[in-house]
Amino acid sequence: MLDRIRGRLRTFEKEIVITIVHIRGYLRRLQRSPAFRYLRRDIRAKVGGVIVLLVVFTAIFAGFIARHDPTTQNLSNRFQGPSWEYPFGTDDAGRDIFSRVVYGARTALIIGTLLVVVQTSIGLPLGLLAGYRGGKVDNLIMRLVDAVLAMPGLIIALAFVAVFGPGIYKVVLALAITGWAGCARLMRGQTLAIKEETYIEAARAIGEKDRTIIFNYVLPNAISPLIVMMTMTFPAAILLSASMSFLGLGVMPPTPDWGYDLNAYKKFMGDPMPAPLMTILPGIVMVITIFGFNFFGDALRDAYDPRLRE
Amino acid sequence: MSEPLLKVQGLKTYFFLERGVVKAVDGVDFEIKKGEILGLVGETGCGKSVTALSIMRLISSPGKTVEGKVIFEGEDLLKKSGEAMRKIRGTKISMIFQDPHTSLDPVFTIGYQIAEPIELHQVEEQHLISAKEVPKKVVEMLKLVGIPDPDHRVVEYPHQFSGGMKQRAMTAMMISCNPSLLIADEPTTAIDVTIQAQILDLMRDLRRKLGTSILLITHNLGVIAEMCDRVAVMYAGNIVEQADITTLFGSPKHPYTRALLEAVPKVGAKRRELKTIPGMVPSLITPPPGCKFHPRCPHAMDMCREEFPQMIEVGKEHLVRCYLYSGASKK
Amino acid sequence: MSSKIPKTKLEAVRAGITAASGKARASGEKLIEVRELKKYFETKRGIFAREKKWVHAVDDVSFYIRRGEVFGLVGESGCGKTTVGKLILGLIRPTAGEIYFDGHNLTKFDKEELRKLRRRMGIIYQHPQSSLNPRMTVHTILSRPIDIHKIAEGKEKEEIILKVLGEVGLEPQHLDRYPHEFSGGQQQRIAIGRVLVLNPDFVVLDEPTSALDVSVQAHILNLLGKLQSKFGFTYLLISHDLNIVEHMSNRIAVMYVGKMVELADKEELRENALHPYTQSLLAAAPIADPKRKRKGVILKGEVPSTINPPPGCRFHPRCPYAKPICKEKEPEFKDVGKGHLVACHFVKSLSHKWPPPA
Question: What is the pTM assigned to this prediction?
Answer without folding.
Answer: 0.84
